[in-house]
Amino acid sequence: MSTSNLPSTRWLDAPAHTAWRIAEGQRLLAFATASKLPDGFGSLDAAGLLAPGARAETLITARMTHCFALAHLQGVPGYLAYAEHGVAALRGALQDATYGGWFAHPGGHDDSGKAAYLHAFVALAASSAVMAGAGGAPALLADAVKVLEAHFWSEEEGALREAFSRAWQLPEQYRGANSNMHAVEAFLALADVTGDSLWLQRALRIAERIIHTHAASNGHRVIEHFDALWQPMPHYNQAHPADHFRPYGSTPGHALEWARLLLHLEASLERFGLHAPQWLPDCARALFDTACQQAWSVDDAPGFVYTLDWDDRPVVRARLHWVHAEACAAAAALLQRTGEAHYEQWYRRCWDFIANHFIDHGAGSWHHELDMRNQPAATIWPGKPDLYHAYQALLLPGLPLAPSLASNLAGNVTKR
After folding, report:
1. Complete domains list, the chain, with CATH
2. SUPFAM superfamilies recorded for this chain (predicted)?
3. Tell me, what's the pLDDT at 7?
């Protein structure tokens, strides 16, 4: 691919930028260690403290375990013990010993059920912990794979079912793009850890349904909500537009995240010697370009808004840190794949925005939410509970598109 249209020095190749990314990653990791609890990891507040009476959360524990495993693979001393703590929690109080799968909180017998979104992150954490050599990780991985295949994966649908009651009864009559997007991420990791290309074929089927079929026919705006027959529900949660995981309308941040994942999937399929359809990079470009056109600075202030309605008007105008982290990672992936200066410009623009608005040099880590004037806010995401998006965005630009993140850091980059 031609790179003649790039600036003379790409930030991806600039030693100072690489050093900045590494240093910022170490700062995020140090902040996140305070989230450790006896039975997992919990959410930190804006000052980096656990609230009185804080309890472990499976989602936070899985994401922290994944990140601490990556830190160990990166060569940062001291973090293997944190990854192993997370593995022990996921094999202990957070796991449902009676029915299998994972509670949202330790001993969560009163929790509403078992969600695909949560279990995708457990599988991702287990995959990364295995690559890091964490004790207990192979058993955790085996449990996660067993649950995914027994309950969530639908061969008929080519996607994940969404949720069940605790005893795997009462399936929810809903299908979600968000949980399936994170299943694609987990399946890429599972393919590398297990050597089984079936996981890539499953990831491709998910992407084909949600992106190549639905998003491509909807102006490359990702449809998030479906009924059990995969019929779109465009008005879902219209009365609760700022929902954490199921907001109303389109979520440009997910379009950016999907763009990156499609390129990882293309590269992983090729690495396994499998056919990678041309629509993967084509849709990646269209998703990214559409999200940038529709959601950046649409209300006379820089940054990506959280959600848009189906006429592309802003609904929730908050700026969330994870959206901008995913924008950086997606721009880097597209820059690697295409060599086009367009993506270098977006890569620089998004990192400048993060540095100027999200990075909290006083209390540490990143503000998780800004208001429409780009001032720190806490209406959707109070505190600073999430290391995952920011830390990955700092690691991914320095790595090839395949294999997946933990395998890349472990040096598992030989072609099969």
Report:
1. 11-409 (1.50.10.10)
2. Six-hairpin glycosidases
3. 60
